[in-house]
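hey m, so remember when u said the C-alpha cells were messed up on ur end? i reran from scratch. heres the input so u can diff it against urs
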Amino acid sequence: MDFLPLLTELFILLSVRAWLANSVAAPLTYADMDPLTGRPVQCDRCPPGTFLRARCSSIRKSECAACPDGSFTELWNYIGKCLRCGVCGRNQVVKKECTADSDCQCECKQGYFYHQDYDMCMRHSECPSGCGVFTKGTPEQDTKCSICPNGTFSDIYSTDQKCSQHKSCSDAGLQLVFKGSTWHDNVCANCIELKDGAAYLKEIIPAFFIHHKIRLKRLRRIVLKLPSQDSRKQEGTFELSFSELHSRISSWVSSATPMQIRQLPVVLIKMRASHAGEKLQNKLNRIEKNLSKQCNLGSVSKVDLNSALA
C-alpha cells in the first residue's frame, strides 16, 4: 500500500490546523524591543475600541486607552492613535453610527442604490409606461420592471407603481370603443349620451405622449403649437423638462375642445413628428368606427357622425 499520499494529506491537514491556531493567538500579542534592556519582548496588543498609549517593557504591560469620540479601532492593535471615523459619501445616509470599536456604516439614501460598477449610489431606475414595478428598489438593488401582462397597463414612468387592471366597460353598462394596451386603459362610451370621437381620444393623449418618446426640443415646439393655447402659458416653454411638458400637455387636454383635439395630429405632422401624428389620427379613426359599430349608428360618414354627436 502506498502511504505517501496519506502522509502528504495528513501533513497538509496538520499545517492548516496549526495555521488556524496561530492566527487566533497571534493578534493578542506583538513582538517589540524592550526599552530598558534592549532585548526582544512580547507585548499585549490593545483590544478593539482602544489604542496603545504606552509600550510595554520587561517590567510593565502595554498601556491601552479608550478611543476618543469620533475615532475607533476594530481589531486588536498596537497603534498609537485611533482611526478617524469615516464620513458617508454623496447620496448616502448613516446606517450605523460610528462607535469606539467599529466605523460608521453607510447606505444609499431613499430612492438610490449602490452600483458596484461605478462604486457610487445611483438613482433607482423608473419603469417606463407599458411596464410595471416587479420589485421595488432598495439601497442595495435597482428597481426591477416587467412588461404589463394582458388586461393590465401602466401609463406613467414610476419607481413604485405596478400595472393596473383595464377597467371593464360592460360592468358599467358601457361599450368598449377602444381596447386598452400595455400603456393605456380601455376607453368606454355611453351610447345613450354619445360624445364626439375626439372627446374619447382625450382619455389616452397624455399617456400617448409619455409612451411615444419624442425628443425634448421637438416636444417643446409641439407644446408651443398646441391649438388655441393660452399665450400666457407659452412663456418659458423652451426651458421646460420632460415632466413639465407632459404636465402642460395634460392641462391642455383637460380643457381642449373636440375640434382642437382633432387638430393635434396635424400639429404633430407639421412639427416633424409624422409617425406619432399618423398613429394618433389612426386611433381617432378607430374610435369613431367603433362608436358607429357599438352604438348601432349604421354606416354613417365622419361628418354625419360628428353631426349626430353634436
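this time it looks ok to me. The radius of gyration is 36 Å. if urs says something different then somethings off w ur setup not the seq
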